[in-house]
Design brief:
Structural class of chain D: alpha/beta
Number of helices of chain A: 3
Oligomer: heterotetramer
Largest sheet of chain D: 4 strands, parallel
CATH superfamily of one domain in chain A: NADH:ubiquinone oxidoreductase Nqo5 subunit
CATH class of chain D: Alpha Beta
Number of domains of chain D: 1
Shape of chain A: elongated
Strand content of chain D: 5-15%
Distance between the termini of chain D: 34 Å
CATH class of one domain in chain A: Alpha Beta
Strand content of chain A: 25-35%
Structural class of chain A: alpha/beta
Low-confidence stretches of chain D: none
Shape of chain D: elongated
Largest interface: A-B, 44 and 53 residues
Chains: A alpha/beta (171), B alpha+beta (430), C mainly alpha (128), D alpha/beta (160)
Distance between the termini of chain A: 61 Å
Helix content of chain A: 10-25%
Mean pLDDT of chain A: 88
Chain lengths: 171, 430, 128, 160
């Protein structure tokens, strides 16, 4: 667990501000530091990182389906601080029955499309998002493809194909 | 003012009704600061659809523009026309099997995608790569950067009107393709990297071809720059449009040359050097204006830097193994497989289960692809298949920046702005 | 006396006949299979929003009118410009009067602002 | 004997179909439905080295109204299939379609929920090209096959 010095400073600062909310810190190969925080404090953690530690560059927001019975989904924010060149991943676990998270588009404009992608792939609702629509799939698609129970070859008939006889009146 | 649901009433979609209605609705309630001057009832808004099948959108990108005369009042991008769920496929493939998919992300520079994916897997599995393989990978990814910037140059200048550039840049790209053909097997989707090293070594003829290409390309690049850099038409066409300052560029999430043109020297080869980039001396090209012309200069000078890097690599590269010989982590070399029993078993084991990173390990590694920072976040569950592979794609971020930049521009400039952002739909649609 | 003009007549008629043949040939030879989507407007693969004849900004119309006026001015200039050395000062003065009148027209349209497209005040989102 | 001998030197008589099909075959204007990596190979096919204008398909028209041969280059997703079908319907009638690359022909390596497994699910395809991406010379080979097919096309009178 050799967390580099600037990372450790930030983690200590977070642990002071949110005493029991920073649940665990993981590290791999000396570069990737992942901080897991409780779900109802994630927006404030991101806000402190944004204001105090100059994490103004949001690179990606993505989700994971852990496929466990409790707190099944994960949303990970990948942010980078330009001032002290530090890259941190802030992770939260979400229950399957209330997949709701406050949006971070008020902090970073970049979060707009990233959150729409997480909504499209996992079904996580972001409250306060300017226009939460599906990012890639058409709106008429009712499933969330990156969930583990969705078959990789898709569900036949979930999206309609164009009709090959142009003259017949479509419905 | 035009009533709010005016476009929605005009749009009568015949397929994907919910999607198209929601898309047009989102255009209407998008807040815009471009203030429309004339409020007389005669002045109705025109909705222009730069649809998925369009010569200037560099792939299948749909832009819905609300125009007031020639000025764009609001625009909305719709992507996903090339979405094939590659992250879902990654969960069912072993690490080495997923390698050919990485060529099809940013299909203008497939070599650097391979290198990015291999570095990420090697980082999570903890594999050492011999020096010669690192040099070969750097030469390949810099050549891919030149070929990607060449296609950007050819299509952007052709969109701005000069068709001859497309022919010149493609002539140079064909040379790069023949170089890749010689040392990596195929014209551009090469899948040349392996986990733990590189698939095949570079023959002296390939080295000679690269040297000839570099000598001619340097002079050719100078000639192109002398034509374009102070060309009245090109400069007037690109100056002061799509202007974005550094602070806004960061918040919108731009990456790569588009971000460096706004004045932020964020280049992964300097921020988190990988391979042998820490020993190379090259500058990170940044401009301050942040408009389309600055992005043009950034990319042109980056081609010079790539040429310098390749020359230094060729000088420093010496004989040596091209793949880690640790049988558990990398493919054994072919003659070992044919002539020894263990080699054949290792080869079979590598193909069957492949590299197995530690259970529960999560790791991120990113590479400076020509379009920006291409990163892979891998979560592994101990088996040969990745549990989750998240791709941070540069064109996805740049396209979001494009939506911010297009507001308030003239409709004729959208073509050059899309060219300036250089999006690749295979990369952004994952 | 009209014989000298016979070749011109032959030339013009052959030209017209050849042009018509190429145009009308496809009516007989080309396959005709109209269908609903072939006749609908091309909207780069998507459904068109609104009809093709929507009302659009008046600045286009102003530019078109501008062009016609000054194009006709050039047409009137041609016959004079070809022979103006032999035509003497009288026609020169007349032509100058004609040009001055149109110059006043041009200055008027400049002041009205029909020519500069980005005359509209523009507060781009990043400047505000 | 025949009409030709009566007309003397330098005259050639042929069927109307042969003339019409010959002229159509040697001016096949491609409609580049460039979707993914095959589109880059299609650009190289139209580029200087593998010059497509030697075979009469110089003009890469992006509007369906002026093109005869639609080259579907790249994997077609369900979302894009409607746009491809709409552009195909809007092309004037003697039209042909080439599925370029494994992804257009059979969905290729992308066996996933988003990709239509082969664009012949919704398009009448005349020529399939294997390869991922196929080299430009195999695209030229497909073009020549399409030209042969046009030359042996049915008679013009049936088109009424």
């Amino acid at each position: 667990m050799n967390i580099s010095e600037p990372h450790q400073a930030i983690i200590n600062d977070l642990q002071q501000k949110y005493p029991d909310k920073v649940l665990d810190v993981k590290e791999h190969a000396g570069a990737t530091v992942i901080v897991r925080v409780n779900r109802d404090v994630v927006h404030d953690v991101l806000e402190t990182l944004y204001n105090d530690h100059h994490f103004i560059y949001l690179l990606q927001v993505f989700g994971t389906d852990r496929f466990t019975s409790e707190n099944r989904f994960e949303v990970i924010y990948h942010i980078f601080s330009l001032r002290d060149q530090v890259r941190i991943f802030v992770k939260t676990w979400l229950e399957e029955d209330n997949l709701v998270l406050p949006t971070t588009t008020d902090l970073w404009k970049a979060a707009n499309w990233q959150e729409r992608e997480v909504y499209d792939m996992f079904g996580v609702q972001f409250t306060g998002h300017p226009d939460l629509r599906r990012m890639f799939m058409p709106e008429d698609f009712e499933y969330y493809p990156l969930r583990k129970e969705f078959p990789p070859l898709g569900i036949p008939g979930s999206i309609q194909l164009p009709s090959t006889t142009p003259d017949t009146e479509e419905d | 003012m035009a009533t709010d649901t005016e476009f929605l009433s005009r749009a009568n979609p015949t397929f994907f009704k919910k999607h198209q209605k929601a898309y047009v609705k989102s255009l209407e309630d998008k807040h815009t600061t471009v203030e429309v001057v004339s409020d007389d009832p005669l002045e109705t808004k025109m909705v222009l659809n730069m649809g998925p099948q369009h010569p200037a959108t560099h792939g299948v990108l749909r832009v819905l523009l609300e125009l007031d005369g020639e000025r764009i009042v609001r625009n909305k991008l719709d992507i996903g026309y090339l979405h094939r769920g590659v992250e879902k496929i990654a969960e069912n493939k072993t690490y080495q099997e997923f390698m050919p998919y990485t060529d099809r992300f940013d299909y203008l520079s497939p070599y650097s995608n391979n290198v990015a994916y291999c570095l990420a897997v090697e980082k999570i599995a903890g594999i050492e790569v011999p020096d010669r393989a690192l040099y070969l990978r750097m030469i390949g990814s810099e050549l891919a950067r030149i070929s990607s910037h060449l296609l950007w140059l050819g299509t952007m200048v052709m969109d701005a009107g000069a068709v001859s550039f497309f022919i010149w840049t493609f002539r140079e790209r064909e040379k790069i393709y023949s170089i890749f053909d010689n040392f990596a097997g195929h014209r551009f989707t090469v899948s040349h990297s392996r986990i733990g090293g590189v698939a095949s070594d570079m023959s002296p003829t390939a080295v000679q071809m690269i040297k000839d290409f570099l000598d001619f390309f340097k002079k050719e690049l100078e000639r192109w720059r002398s034509i374009l850099d102070r060309n009245r038409i090109f400069v007037d066409r690109n100056m002061d449009i799509g202007q974005i300052d550094a602070d806004e560029a960061i918040r919108v999430g731009l990456t790569g040359p588009a971000l460096r043109a706004a004045g932020i020297p964020y280049d992964i080869r300097r921020v988190a050097p990988y391979g042998k980039y820490s020993e190379m001396d090259f500058e990170v090209i940044t401009r301050l204006e942040g408009d389309n012309l600055a992005r043009y200069y950034c990319r042109m000078e980056e081609m010079h830097e790539s040429v310098r890097i390749i020359e230094q690599c060729l000088a420093k590269m010496e004989k040596g193994p091209i793949r880690a010989d640790n049988a558990k982590k990398a493919y054994p070399s072919k003659d070992e497989v044919y002539y020894s029993m263990e080699g054949m078993i290792h080869d079979f084991m590598m193909t069957d289960t492949g590299v197995c990173p530690p259970e529960g390990a999560e790791c991120y590694h990113s590479v400076e692809a020509p379009k920006g920072e291409l990163g892979f976040f891998i979560q592994s569950d101990g088996t040969g298949h990745a549990w989750r592979l998240a791709i941070k794609s540069p064109s996805f971020a740049n396209l979001q920046g494009l939506e911010y930049i297009l507001d308030g521009e003239m409709v004729a400039d959208t073509v050059v702005l899309i060219g300036g952002m250089d999006p690749v739909m295979g990369d952004s649609d994952k | 006396m009209l014989e000298e003009y016979l070749p011109i007549l032959v030339l013009v008629s052959v030209a017209i006949i050849v042009a018509l043949v190429f145009l009308l040939l496809s009516i007989f030879l080309g396959p005709k299979r109209p269908n609903k989507w072939k006749l609908s407007p091309y909207e780069s693969g998507m459904d068109p929003i609104g009809q093709a004849r929507e009302r659009y900004s008046v600045s286009f119309y102003m530019i078109a009118m501008e062009f016609i006026v000054f194009d006709l001015e050039v047409v009137f200039l041609y016959p004079w410009a070809v022979r103006f050395t032999q035509l003497g000062w009288g026609t020169f003065a007349a032509m100058m009067i004609f040009l001055v009148i149109l110059l006043i027209g041009l200055i008027y349209t400049f002041k009205k602002g029909t020519l500069d497209w980005d005359a509209k005040p523009l507060n781009k989102p990043f400047k505000s | 004997m025949g009409l030709e001998s009566a007309l003397g030197e330098g005259f050639l008589t042929t069927k109307l179909d042969a003339v019409v099909n010959w002229s159509r075959a040697n001016a096949v204007w491609p409609m580049p439905m460039g979707l993914a990596c095959c589109a880059i190979e299609m650009m190289a096919f139209a580029g200087p080295k593998y010059d497509a204008s030697r075979f009469g398909s110089e003009v890469m028209r992006f509007s369906p109204r002026q093109s005869d041969l639609m080259i579907v280059a790249g994997w077609c997703t369900y979302k894009m299939s409607h746009a491809i079908r709409r552009v195909w319907d809007q092309m004037p009638d003697p039209k042909w379609c080439v599925a370029m690359g494994a992804c257009a022909s059979t969905g290729g390596m992308h066996r996933s929920y988003g990709v239509v497994q082969g664009c012949d699910n919704f398009l009448p395809v005349d020529a399939y090209i294997s390869g991922c991406p196929p080299r430009p010379d195999s695209l030229l080979n497909a073009l020549i096959k399409i030209q042969d097919k046009i030359k042996k096309e049915h008679t013009v009178l049936l088109d009424k």
